Amino acid sequence: ICTLLFASLYILCHFIITHFKKHTDFAAVHDDEDAAVNRIALGLCTFTLAVALGAVLLLPFSIISNEVLLSFPQNYYVQWLNGSLIHGLWNLVFLFSNLSLVFLMPFAYFFTESEGFAGSRKVGGPVGVPRPVLPTPGSSLTPLPQGIMARVYETSVVLLLLTLLVLGMVWVASAIVGNNAASRQSLHDLWEYYLPYLYSCISLFGVLLLLLCTPFGLSTMFTVTGKLLVKPRLLEDLDEQLSCTRLEEASVSRRI
């Protein structure tokens, strides 16, 4: 059931992203490497959007399933809508949310921006031209990492350094705030404390951003709607319009 639900959300999110995605030059046929990078990044973004949509729909799904069970308590075909399914979905959503937030989305961003380490080159090039192989001191001719693997290496290194930086900042902040020996211990409780704490902080930042941007979005939406719609003329005074028209006619006649 979880697999079917996630597959449906993934297909829906894939159509949504491909509908709003702008055309990119590196998705052309002649550049296979950049097109593959684009497809990988698109898959990661689609997975993350599916997880986010699942997190949003988790509460309505639980309410609807509870109402269905209360309406049909003796029906055998709806007994799978139980608390075990809701708890399992919540555990999967929490796991994949942390995975997407900490790993998948930064990896997709750094992967699209990477070019490979110095000395690597893109796969492809003119047909018939042999690829150069650089010798290394004290060994035979060894080809350097090329193509997508070079980008994967660079992205993994950058993501590892970013992870160490974020964990170090969280550990230092916890040590400063806690100011005791227990807060300065090693990061052995990473999964129980630091990841949920980071997830809660980012969720709080998202809620504050939503509360800040919603009034501006609503005002902009009503402004644009007011410009596009034609205002009704039901309360206009026709006699006043006729008098104004006569005055304008008399003014034009005097000028003539």
From TrEMBL:
This entry's Gene Ontology molecular function terms read: transmembrane signaling receptor activity
**According to Swiss-Prot or TrEMBL, what is its membrane topology?**
Multi-pass membrane protein
- Which InterPro entries does the record cross-reference, listed alphabetically? LIMR (IPR008075), LMBR1-like_membr_prot (IPR006876)
User: What GO cellular component entries does it have?
Assistant: endoplasmic reticulum membrane; plasma membrane
| Protein keywords | Cell membrane, Endocytosis, Endoplasmic reticulum, Membrane, Receptor, Transmembrane, Transmembrane helix, Wnt signaling pathway
**Record organism:** Eudyptula minor (Little blue penguin)
Q: Which residues cross the membrane?
A: 40-64, 84-112, 157-177, 197-224
The GO biological-process annotations, alphabetized, read as:
receptor-mediated endocytosis; Wnt signaling pathway
The record's family statement is: Belongs to the LIMR family.
Q: What is this protein called?
A: Protein LMBR1L
Q: Which PANTHER family match?
A: LIPOCALIN-1 INTERACTING MEMBRANE RECEPTOR LIMR (PTHR12625), PROTEIN LMBR1L (PTHR12625:SF2)
The entry's localization annotation reads:
Cell membrane; Endoplasmic reticulum membrane
